[in-house]
Amino acid sequence: MIDRADRPRRERVAASATAAVIVAIIVAPYLISCTLATGNPLIAIDYHTRYYRFAENQPIDKPMSAAEYIRRKFAERPVATLDTGLNGIFVQPFFTKWNGFGPWAPGAGAVARALGAAGLAAMPFFAAGRLLLVALLGSLVPYMFTWNVGGGGEWRFTMHAYPFFFVAVGVAVVGLVRAVQAVAADPVILRSRAATVAAIGVAIYFVLPWYVIRESIVRGESTSIETGERDRVFFRSGWSPLHVDNIPFRVSRTERAVVRLPLPQKRAYDIALRIDPITPTSPEQVDVLFNRTLVGRFRLSLNPERVGSYRIHVRDEIVTAGSNELILIPTSLTPSLSAGPRYAWLGPSERLGLRMWYVRVVP
To answer: Does the pTM of the predicted model rise above 0.90?
Structure first.
């Protein structure tokens, strides 16, 4: 006689075994055919490492398995590879799927994206949702480490994820009423769980770029700290929201704008600033402080075809191993109304100093 408490566990084991047998029956003929034809059952995956190595200027004269390709990435750049993988499985496939709703109705893509994100966030809390997430995330594993190499980020590689995201939208719509009822019944538990999950996700997404940049500097590579969606860990105070006008940039809007740099060693560094004045005549120059020590004073010029580049040398005695502060002080601030149409997206009462593209730590 099977104990009632033990029955669900045994049923799950039996179902899992059945699923494994079915998968083996479906997949085995293909793997056997690949083995007989090429000697490698995973040739369909391993073959593409040649393409990705070529895109990264690596030797391609010898074959390399996908497992070895990823292993080398982790061995050489563990933090950057982790960041790439997390973006490739959680961020890129999702955010590239909603632009097509724009012609239907203004804002339709943003609404669908928000509902999809809410639905995906709710899925871990019920069994069917967890099953869908396992299927979705498992299907994205071959894409997660190569989306930023060559043409590895093409839309077609994650086209199969679209139905999962539509299901997530449905989950959000159907679950809104239930969520309201659940919060009313037990608000403390639900809110604490949601806050914990959200805090962890936000921290990982926005803090990891700091360690990716640090890892690149440790390797002695030319490393750019660019303005972008995940740049807030660097561009701390005194900056406008991100704006894109051919290039992404931020505008300083206080007398002092701060950039934080993750320098791993106490030594001398060369740093290049890609900045522009707001108008051809304002500001005329900018003072650059590094950890509150004056390291440069530049007369600015505006070239409509190229963002200005200014280079500073930082002596080792003023460098801290860890977080360092770069402060930009323009000699004047330009009223937004006088700055021209390029800055019309900013409020009329804003006072603008510099346009920042990126800071580069030069070997």
So the answer is: no
